[in-house]
Amino acid sequence: MYINNPCIKLPNDTNTVVWKYLDLSKFLDLLLSHKLFMSRSDKFEDQYEGTFSEPTFEEIKKLAIDNPDFLNHYKTHREKVAVSSWHINEYESFAMWQIFTQNSEGLAIQSTIGRLQRSLRPETDFEQYIGEVNYIDYKKELIPFDDSFFPFLFKRKSFQYEREVRVITDIGESDLQINEGLKISVDINELIEKIYIHPKSENWYKNLVIQLVKQLGFKFTIEKSDLESDILI
After folding, report:
1. What's the longest Cα–Cα distance across the chain?
2. What are phi and psi of 99, to 5 degrees?
3. Half-sphere exposure in the Cβ direction for 181 (13 Å, CA)
4. What is the pTM of this model?
5. Cα–Cα dist 169/182, whole Å
6. I need a surface site. Which of 110, 117, 140, 141 has the fewest CB within 10 A?
7. Which residues are CB-neighbours of 9 under 8 A, at least 6 positions away?
8. What does the pLDDT profile of the chain (233 residues) look like in tens digits?
């Protein structure tokens, strides 16, 4: 289960809708394993992931003059943190379909902040947090560094369109090693409220997903995205 930290910002309304866009293979892996894959933070395409803004880095360098391990801790900590990203939006996002699904056979999980919180199962080896990402000017604004997970809740303003909420897993106090990422246990029925099929997919693909989900014993609603519905004139 996740740890409630008052320093981490989240929407007040736990019914706030969140989305995860993914391909069929990752979706089936989630259903079969009952585990949510989380990427190691330094494996993201954004090279700034888990790093500090310029003003913060200058402050840390001052503190590291007499304690070089202080700076080294923040550099190596990125290898010990894994992230699952979710998109806040009341509606589907055309941009998210384009970015996170490589072809017309993708799908989207619709959930809520509350469902995401309740779906996480207790883990003995690491701590988990859920927080909303802050988008700042990395040349001008300070990122707090009184807690080592804070860098993972900040991104550059150019990523504001992502409107991201993150599940953050920190294995820094354990002996675990992360390669590409790790999987955390989740309650699938709590996590998933509804599934949307890619707007450009064929009907056979929707029927395939429905059949696979049914065979695996799940009963959540599956709908075709209406972003490509018929134009009414």
Report:
1. 71
2. -80, -40
3. 16
4. 0.88
5. 9
6. 140
7. 131, 132, 134, 153
8. 455 554 578 888 999 999 999 999 999 999 999 999 999 988 887 888 888 889 988 888 887 787 777 777 777 888 889 999 999 999 999 889 988 887 788 999 999 999 999 999 887 778 888 999 999 999 999 888 777 777 889 999 999 999 999 999 888 777 778 888 899 999 999 999 999 999 999 889 999 999 999 999 999 999 999 887 555 45
Q: Are 19 and 107 in contact (CB under 8 A)?
A: no
CB atoms within 10 A of CB 133: 20
**Secondary structure, 3-state, the chain:** CCCCCCCCCCCCCCCCEEEEEEEHHHHHHHHHHCEEEEEEHHHCCCCCCCCCCHHHHHHHHHHHCCCHHHHHHHHHHHHHEEEEEEEECCCCCHHHHHHHCCCCCEEEEEEEHHHHHHHECCCCCCEEEEEECEEECCCCCCCCCCCCCHHHHEEEHHHHHHCEEEEEEECCCCCCCCCCEEEEEECHHHHCCEEEECCCCCHHHHHHHHHHHHHCCCCCEEEECCCCCCCCC
Q: How far apart are CA 26 and CA 24, in angstroms?
A: 6
CA-wise closest residue to 114 among 152, 78, 86: 86
N residues, the chain: 233
